[in-house]
Amino acid sequence: MQFNASNNNFSGPLPDVKGRFSAESWSGNPELGGEFISKEFPPSAAAAPLSPRKSKDSSRRLLLIYFGYAVLGLIILLVVAFILISKKKLKEAEADVAKKGVNAYTSSTYDVSKITEHKSEYSASYEESRAAMSPLVVLRSPRAQGLRFEDLLRAPAELLGKGKHGSIYKVMLHNGSTTLAVKRVKDWSVTSQAFRRRMQRLHQTRHPNILRSLAFYSSKQEKLLVYEYQPNGSLSKLLHGSRNGQAFDWGSRINVAATVAEALAYMHEELSEDGIAHGNLKSANILFNNNMDPCVSEYGLMISQSENPSSNSHSNSFGLDPARIRTSFKADIYGFGVILLELVTGKPVQGDELELIQWVNTVVREEWTVEVFDKGLLLEGASEERLLILLQIALKCINPNPYERPNMDQVAVMINTLKDEEDKSSPYV
Ligand SMILES: Nc1ncnc2c1ncn2[C@@H]1O[C@H](COP(=O)(O)OP(=O)(O)OP(=O)(O)O)[C@@H](O)[C@H]1O
Known about the structure:
It is built from 14 helices and ten strands. The protein is of the alpha+beta class. A hairpin with a 4-residue loop joins strand 1 (2-4) and strand 2. It is elongated, with a radius of gyration of 40 Å. Residues 154-429 form the Protein kinase domain. ATP binds at residue 183.
C-alpha cells in the first residue's frame, strides 16, 4: 500500500489494513493502543498536512455559515416589523370605529335611549371595535349581503320596543330603501357556537307563517338578529291598540288562531328532537306582513335554562324547573292559550297574564260565561257556541299542569275544525 500525501490518493490495491497504532500516535493511555482495523484511511493519512483545496472548502463553509446567520437575522427583523405594523393597524381601526360609532349615535334620527345605551356598551371595547368590522352571518336575504355590524350601528334607527329580553329597532339602510328590524338580545349567556348552531337549525326549518331572521351577528358581548320589518303591526296592537279590535272581526280572529296554531304545530314537530320551542309566545310576537297574514316572530330566541350553564334550577310541584317550563314546548301551548283568551275576550295582558286568567276563571266559575266574550264580537253576531268552543280550547292550553295541556298538533286540529264550521256557516261562502 502506498499513500501519496500530496494528492491524498491511494495507489495500489485497497489494503486489508491491519495496521497497528503506535503508542505515540494515541494521545490517551498508551495501553489503549490496540489493533486498528480500517478499510478507508491508513493511519498515516490522518496525519497528512492540510491541502490548499481543503482550506478553500473550509473558507467556503465559513462563508455559508455567515450567510445563514444574515438570512436568519433578516427573517427575525421582518417578523418583528410585521407584528408591530399589525398592532398599529388594529389600534387605528379601533379609534376609527369608536369615532364613527359616536357620530352615529349623535345623529338626530337615533332614539336617545339607544344613544346612551350604545355608548356605554360599545365605545370602550377594543374587542368590539375589531368585531364591528366583521360581516354579519347572512342567512337568506341579498339585502343583508355584505352588511356589517358597523353598518347597523351607523344607520338611522328608531326604537320600536324594549322588552325583558332586549330592545328592537327599526333600522333604515340604503337611503331608506331597505327597512329592517334589528333585535339586540340582552343578558344571553349562551356561547357564540351554541347561538350559531341554533340560528342555522332555525334557518333550515321553514314555514310561511314563521318569520325567519335574515342575518345575525354574534360576539362575546353582543348578539343581534336582523328581521324584515313588518309594516302592519302586531296582533297585540290590532286587538288592543287605538281601534281596540274594532276592525278585527270574528272570522279574522279564527283565521289568525288557525294559521298560528298550524305554524307552531309544524315547528314543534320539526324541532322536537332539537328541543327548540318558541320560548316567548305572546300577541306582540305575532306580526302582520304586507298581505296581512300573521307571522310568528322571534321563534327559538329564548335559550332554555338547561342550555345555560350558569342557571340555578329548582323543580316545582310537577317535578319541573319553572324556568324550563317557560321555554319548553308546553310553555308555548300555555302562551298560545293566553293569545286565544285575548282573541275571545278582547282584553289585553297587562304585566303578567295571571290577572286575565284569574278574571276569566272567576267569570266562568260563576257561570256568567257570556260576560267573558268581547262585546264587539257579540254585537257583530259571532256565534256564542263557537266562541265558547274557542274559550274551552284556551282553558285546556293554560292548564296549570303542563302534562295535561294538549300538544300543538291537537290544538291545531281543534281550531281547524272550528274554522271549518265557521266557514260553512258564513253567508259569504
Ligand atoms: N320584524 C318586526 N317588524 C316590525 N315590528 C316588529 C318586528 N319585530 C318586533 N316588532 C315590534 O316591536 C315591538 C317590540 O318588540 P319586542 O319583541 O322587542 O317586544 P317584546 O316582545 O315586548 O320584548 P321581549 O320579548 O324582549 O319582552 C313590538 O310591538 C313588536 O310588535
